[in-house]
Amino acid sequence: MRVIHVSAECYPMAKAGGLADVVGALPKYQNKMGLQAFVVMPMHRTSYLIHHHWDTVYKGSFSFGNQTIDFTVIKEKANELGFELYCVDINGLLDRTQIYGYDDDDERYLAFQIAVLEWILHSQMPDLIHVHDHHAGLIPFMMQHCFTYKQLSSLRTILTIHNAQYQGCMDWSKAKLLPAYDEWKSGLLEWNHQINSLACALKCVNKVNTVSKNYMLELMNHANGLEHLFQNERNKCTGILNGIDYQVWNPEHDESIQTQYDSSSQEFGKLENKKQLCFQFGFDENLPLFIFIGRLVFEKSADLLAATIETAFEKFGKEFNFLVLGNGESKIESTLTSIHEKCFGYYHSKFEFNEQLSHQMYAGADFLFMPSRVEPCGLNQLYAMRYGTIPMVRNTGGLKDTVIDVEQENGYGITFENVSIDEMVLSIKRALELYKNSPMVNLLRKKMMTINTSWEKRTADYTELYDSVI
Ligand code: GLC
Predict the structure, then answer these.
(1) In the structure, which protein residues have their CB atom closer than 6 angstroms to any atom of ligand 1?
(2) FRET partner for 67 with CA separation of 20 to 30 A, picked from 129, 253, 309, 407?
(3) Ligand 1: residue whose CA is nearest its atom 10
(4) pLDDT by residue (tens digit) across 111-122?
């Protein structure tokens, strides 16, 4: 079976969040299982692009409103990722350093999707097109209802939703950029008087999955306006939990960390990594170390982080260290900066995307704090567990499916229900108490490190989903 994954991100070529990790791992494991899976994405101007060699495999053009757009498809030459990686280049639209955040993102991703279909139409056809999130969400509609792509209309399609908060909504005036389509079907493009790419994908694909079962249940009631649509389409919806790439996330062989370790040497290994990390940030290595890694946005409850840390220091004294890594909204960054002085020596925040430092933090920390308001799956808690770092999570989305509270049978983490400073501070209190019981901490670390969260385990669920539509 030949499967094309269409995505805005793919690790290591370009990453803004967990989407990249999933699209950079799933096809690799699918190929190992005998499928022929590959990825197509925009040719963002990243350092991976610059440092690798590429072959041009296709050149084409299409009409885009009253313009003609030329595009090129290139392929990574060394084929070193475990899957073929194709990138679409469109001068003036996709030749940017960032993945998102431009005023013309609607036009950029519309043109990307049309180019992908043009390329598929004129090259070897796959058996299945797997689109990820709204940036690829209009592809199923175009395949079925744009006259030029009639030949593709019988290909099967799957949509994976990594985050339903973002839906790719645009004004109806953008419809003129689409290739000519059957006007009788324009209702499929619409939700709430706008073109809504995610809603359109939901209506047009053969099957939909989100990245955890619990998040799919939540979407039936809260989906940023799409809940009725999820209810209508519930028969084709399912949840498949993400895995993590054990080749990238493995403390036994991780070259980004100072001391490698496994579940039997974790006590020594984690301590060595902690010492190194504490030295780097001027922390006392004898105190418990909490970390937060992620985008500094409302969805991740990053707006409450500074107040939570400050309150916990006030209530419990300078009994712990807290390190924050991530970037996002400048307002949130400034609240996190504002507590630097007060918490000096015990707290630090670094506003950047730093893959290597994140590995060192998972290895050296005692607790990962993840109070997300919305978390479709969450990968960070899985990385933390793999590195023996105790997850402290809000009971939502995929966090609920992957973290069991230590008070429950087979538990290993700390969970809480509500996004409130009080509950978050209380979870820190529970962690501080747990930390004093080092035999228990060791036991929990060992337990977490041996839980199988690999893609090998999850890939079979995707194969089953594909089989159900082919
Ligand atoms: C998004 C979600 C996250 C999920 C990831 C990969 O980033 O916010 O929860 O794990 O996609 O599916």
Answers:
(1) 17-19, 22, 162-163, 211, 242, 375-379, 398
(2) 129
(3) 378
(4) 999 999 999 999
Query: pTM score, two decimals?
Result: 0.95
Task: Write down the mean pLDDT value for the chain.
Answer: 97
How many CA atoms within 13 Å lie on the side-chain side of 368? Answer: 32
Q: Structurally, how many domains does the chain consist of?
A: 2
Per-residue model confidence (pLDDT) at position 457: 86
Give, for ligand 1, the residue of 131, 211, 224, 401 to mutate: max count of ligand atoms closer than 8 Å to Cβ.
211
296 C-alpha to center of ligand 1: Å?
14
Strands 2-6 and 36-42: parallel
Q: What is the pLDDT of residue 203?
A: 98
Same domain, 192 and 301: no
Share of the chain above pLDDT 90, in %: 99
**299 touches 305 (CB < 8 A):** no
3-state secondary structure of 250: coil
Residues 191 and 76 in one domain: yes
Q: Model confidence at 229, in pLDDT bands (50, 70, 90)?
A: very high
CA of residue 147 to ligand 1 center, whole Å? 34
- Phi, psi (degrees; rounded to nearest 5) at 68: -110, 130
Helices marked H in 289-387 — which ranges? 305-316, 330-338, 355-364, 380-386
Q: Is residue 54 part of a domain?
A: yes
User: Per-residue pLDDT tens for 352-407?
Assistant: 999 999 999 999 999 999 999 999 999 999 999 999 999 999 999 999 999 999 99
Q: Write down the H helix ranges in 136-265.
A: 139-145, 197-204, 213-219, 227-232
Task: Give the separation between CA 2 and CA 352, rounded to whole angstroms.
Answer: 37
Question: Range of 361's domain?
Answer: 266-449
Q: H/E element holding 23?
A: helix 18-23
How far, in Å, are 101, 261, 362, 470 from residue 272 at the CA level? 39, 10, 13, 51
Cβ atoms of 444 and 267 within 8 Å: the answer is no
- Residue 251 belongs to some domain of the structure: no
Same domain, 146 and 273: no
* Residue 282 belongs to domain with CATH number: 3.40.50.2000
Domain membership flag for residue 259? no
